[in-house]
Amino acid sequence: MVSAVHRALSITEITRKIKQTLTEHVGNVVVEGEISNIKCYSSGHTYFVLKDESAQLNVVLFKSVRDGLANVDFLVDGQKVRADGAISVFEGRGQYQLVVHKIESAGIGDLLERYEQLKKKLQAEGLFDDAHKKALPLLPRRIGIVTSPTGAVIHDIVNVLRRRFPNMSMVLAPVKVQGAGAADSIAKAIRWFNASCGKGSAREIDVLIVGRGGGSIEDLWAFNEEIVARAIYNSEIPVISAVGHAVDYTLCDFVADLRAPTPSAAAELAVKSKADFENLLCQHSLQMERMLMQRSEMLRNQLHRLANAPVLTRPEQALARYAQRVDHLEMRLQHVIQREIAQTRTHWQQSSAKLDFFRERWIANLRSELQQRFENMRIYTINRTLSLQKVIENYQRQLQLLNPLKILDRGYSLTRAADGSLIRSVTDVSNGAELLTLLKDGTIKSTVQNEK
Amino acid sequence: MSDKKKMSFEESLKRLDTIVTDMESGEMELDAMIKAFEEGQTLVKSCNTMLNEIDAKIEKVVKAGENGGETEPLVVEQEI
């Protein structure tokens, strides 16, 4: 409704209108951006700007919200954050702003967590296994490089390689090393090298260097992407990874066949210096010559010595020596024989003497034994005789006691007939028979007158 | 001389090392030493050739096709 006279709005009125519009039509939002110009006042309230490549937004973080945060370390310039809040207008400054209800880090913390998760996943799959890592060729003929075509990295790599090995061949596959599409670009380059420059191809590549210069974790992020890690794992060409500074470790570094702390180090690891190789070959060559010369010298000396040996130049001396040996042996033989004879003789004499000694002793023993036996027999005989004598005497005595003629002492007499038979009864005699009567002291011859 | 398969640089170097070590051991007959010396010198020559065979091209890929692709020489300022 247009009136005849347009009443001009006051600044307050127009500002209120803007505020209303913004609050109604934009209201609560969630934004992400990089913190810049952050300032905290004594009131406890924090003011900063969130920006991206082409715009910026004023932000206020009141003390009450800030106090409620578990962690405020991320509230620094350069930090990417994610903020929940309401768009409103600060009338006093004529400024639209975001009043934050909730704010958290969207930068490194988030990235680190993604890094750790991906690292665990790839490690579990075995992408980092040592067993899978390939050895680098001792002498590569062509080196492939995956890095940015501008900047110090390609510069350093090429110069180090040229210095170490002036006629080394290299192929650079230029890629984006950060930002959107970098990971795809790097992975594609690695795959291309494998497909077009594999074994047997015209432009065969023996080793790849994949890397970039130093930077923040966001800058290096492409080298933490799964697609790049897998491209390196699947590469049949050995890969040296050289990402960032010596302290930076990306997932590429774990998957690669070798990790270099810097791009220049990567170039050094890729190939030994040509001069070193040439020196080694030269040394080997000299050493072989030296050994051969030594050996032939030694043999020559040996030959010389042998050729001049008296045995060859004056053989009769050698023979003379042998003759002398024979004589010497003969002499020794004689000595030995003589000694043997003498020994045997002595031995025999000793044995003989021993024999005599034993014989004498044996005879003496026999003799004494004989004497002993004689003695025994004599004693025995004497004893026997004595005892027999005793026995005889006994018998004698007994006999005497029993002697019938003893009876004669008692006055008895024995009368015998002429024929000598004993007269025991009167019937034994007849008249006129001659009788002999034996008395103790003699005999009486008588004749029978009358028997009764 | 039989037509042997070309030995790689690494294999040649290894064989050369073995030959030198054997010759140093002092236990080789003279005939064997001469033969080893000849083989060794041949190896040294072929290794040196391999070192110099590498053609010093520094290229940049401009088109990464499926079979090969195009390259152009890469110019990098030389260090002084």
The CATH architecture classification of the largest domain in chain A is 3-Layer(aba) Sandwich
Portion of residues within helices of chain B: 40-55%
CATH superfamily of the largest domain in chain A: Succinyl-CoA synthetase domains
Instruction: List the secondary-structure elements of chain A in sequence, H or E.
Output: HEEEHEEHEHEHEHEHEHHHHEEE
Question: Could you tell me the strand content of chain A as a percent range?
Answer: 15-25%
The N- to C-terminal Cα distance of chain B equals 48 Å
* Low-pLDDT segments of chain B: none
Total E-strand runs of chain B:
2
Rounded to the nearest angstrom, the distance between the terminal CA atoms of chain A is: 241 Å
Radius of gyration of chain B in whole Å, from Cα? 20 Å
Quick check: average pLDDT of chain B?
84
* Mean pLDDT, all residues of chain A: 90
CATH fold naming of the largest domain in chain A: Rossmann fold
How many beta-strand segments of chain A?
13
Instruction: Count structural domains of chain A.
Output: 5
The major sheet of chain B is characterized as:
2 strands, antiparallel
